[in-house]
């Protein structure tokens, strides 16, 4: 039985996520929780954040096939279209560094700078070896 073929799921946020579109989340006690470490187990990215009385819309990282907006870290170097983006400790993304242990989570579809929302394609999270 197919339950959801668009890989967008609804999860209750653990805190107010209304200003967190484009941030990556993990699952914590069945709720969506913002990533708090660059090594967290990523579940997806918020496409529509809600209060704890609602449900976040989450594009699932390893299954969603469309284009989403991702939030660029305040400390990121400039991003070029095509860059493979790395997870930042606050759930945003950074330009590629190639540093061992970093987690790659998306590919940029456009250029971007710090604190912007940019279009990206999600990729299954992979740790740089």
Structural notes for this entry:
Helix content is 0%, strand content 40%. It has 129 residues and is mainly β. The chain has 2 domains: 8-60, no CATH class; 67-127, no CATH class. It is globular, with a radius of gyration of 14 Å. 36% of the residues are buried.
Can you describe this structure in just a few lines?
The protein has 129 residues and is mainly beta.
Instruction: Please provide the count of β strands.
Output: 10
- Beta-strand content estimate: 35-45%
Strand order of the largest sheet: 1-5-4-2-3
- Low-pLDDT runs of 5+ residues are none
Q: How many domain modules? A: 2
Order of helices and strands: EEEEEEEEEE
Helix content: under 10%
- CA radius of gyration is 14 Å
- Mean pLDDT, to the nearest integer, reads 95
Cα-to-Cα separation, first versus last residue: 37 Å
Keywords for this entry:
129 residues; mainly beta; 2 domains; five-stranded antiparallel β-sheet; 0% helix
